Amino acid sequence: MTVDERPIRYPSAADPWPDFRALLRSKPVVRAEMPDGSIGWLVSGYNEVRQVLVDPRFSRARAVAPGRALQGTEVFAAGSINGLDPPEHTRIRRLVASAFTARRVEAMRPRVASVVDELIDGLLDQPQPADLVAGFALPLPVQVICEMLGIPAGDMEQFHAWSDTIIGDWQQDSDAIMTALAGLYGYFGRLIEVKRARPADDLMTALISARDQTDRLSEEELTILGCTLLIGGHETTANQIGLSLLLLLDHPAELDKLRADPGLTPAAVEELLRYVRLGGGLPPARMTTEEVVLGGVTIPAGEVVLPLFGTANRDPSVFSDPDRFDVSRVPASHLTFGAGVHHCLGAQLARLELQEAFRGLLGRVPGIRLAVPAAELQFKPGMALYSLRELPIRWGEP
Amino acid sequence: VTRWVVTVDKNTCIGSAVCVGTAPGRFELDDRQRSGPVTAEIDPDEAVRDAAASCPMEAISLVDAGTGEPVDLD
């Protein structure tokens, strides 16, 4: 085993979201001291991160087992598709995989485009400055996932507040996370009863029928799966829209290039996904089930391994000039959606929403710009995602 | 005895590697991160059926080697 002279601290209150690009070049697999004082392994090289995600010797279930509180979200991940290993993971994911295939998602494009248009109409009717988070970035994915599941988007304020707490990072109060989880599970349990009484052509009805008619999942699994789809279906995309706009506004030449050629949108969305740092301090951990040699480094059995997706997305051996943001870059396989069995279930839907969002924002909101200096923007504390409180924008002639 | 023929459409595959994790030892990625079967013709294997049903791109096809009919993924 490689013993480094002293493990690096990661993350710490002084530097909660450190930049690991230097590590990528010197030590793509390295021991680190976690906030709770335990020792884990940071993995930053592209190929090494991919191996952690794909190789079954890196278990997700063991990393979120009860008793570990490395990261706030474990308690939610344990028992959900985010925190299971095959074959339990396969059984649950199969129930929803077909609803999120590229083909099924593409069929939703006209509806997503019309939600984008309605929200932009509403935004343009508002006095300036307007908040892009409340007026667009959040309601777009909420509306889409709620329609897909067949649940009322009007409940957004309620479930989004729980969701923000549940997506807590290692600094978030664990009692607050438990309270929010109880609130969300209770809410979803009531929704399921309503759906049982009034079935419809939607995903929750299909899952309830998989529960009631063919017993393919338990009542608890049904509730957790519904909550996972609701949270996973809106938090990441909502924050990615805001952060992506910020990045584009900070690179006006790239923004102009994209506006002049909307055909670049799919490639630009891949570059935004690669480049934007959405995840915060601690990525979803894995635990070794046996001794594994990774990138030439021997990791003993039973150790925590953290795949640094965002850093791997800047690996120069895969992405030429990786720190340059280029909307016309030939897309390579970034790791933002992960890989292996936990590859983001909603990846195709997120891509579609981002494509339609930027077609709408750049095509219909001329002169879109920040209404406050970027340095004044605030992020919500204690979240495992970079989440803007507000994104005040102006448009039209300056 | 039934055998299955496994193929992956490399033009459709996005390298998510869901199949590699779902059916260990049955699929592998090439140097372009595109999947393919380790062995093209296999005995029926539920994990391979799961992998085909879980592919986000529906890029995996399973065909009955005897009849040439698609294997039911449900």
Structural write-up:
The complex is a heterodimer of chains A (398) and B (74). Helices cover 47% and strands 9% of the residues of chain A. Chain A is α+β, with helices and mostly antiparallel strands and 398 residues long. In chain A, α7 packs parallel to α18, α14 (235-250) crosses α18 and α16 crosses α18 (347-364). Chain A is globular, with a radius of gyration of 21 Å. Chain B contains two helices and five strands. In chain B, strands 4-1-5 form a three-stranded antiparallel β-sheet, with helices on one face. The mean pLDDT of chain B is 96. The chains are: A alpha+beta (398), B alpha+beta (74). The interface between A and B is medium-sized, with 25 and 19 residues.
Please give a handful of descriptors for the protein shown:
heterodimer, A: alpha+beta, 6-stranded mixed sheet, 3-stranded antiparallel sheet, 18 helices, 47% helix, B: 74 residues, alpha+beta, two-stranded antiparallel sheet, 2 helices, 19% helix
C-alpha end-to-end distance of chain A: 60 Å
Largest interface: A-B, 25 and 19 residues
State the total count of DSSP E strands of chain B.
5
Overall pLDDT metric of chain B: 96
Order of helices and strands of chain B: EHEEEHE
Q: What fraction, in percent, of the residue positions of chain A are helical?
A: 40-55%
Query: How would you classify the helix and strand content of chain A by structural class?
Result: alpha+beta
Tell me the quaternary state. heterodimer
In order across it, which strands form the biggest sheet of chain A?
1-2-3-9-6-4
Helicity level of chain B: 10-25%
The stretches of 5 or more residues of chain B where confidence is low (pLDDT under 50) are none
Q: Can you count the helices of chain B?
A: 2
Beta strand count of chain A: 11
Provide the low-confidence segments of chain A as ranges: none
For the largest beta-sheet of chain B, the strand count, sense and barrel status come to: 3 strands, antiparallel
The number of helices of chain A is: 18
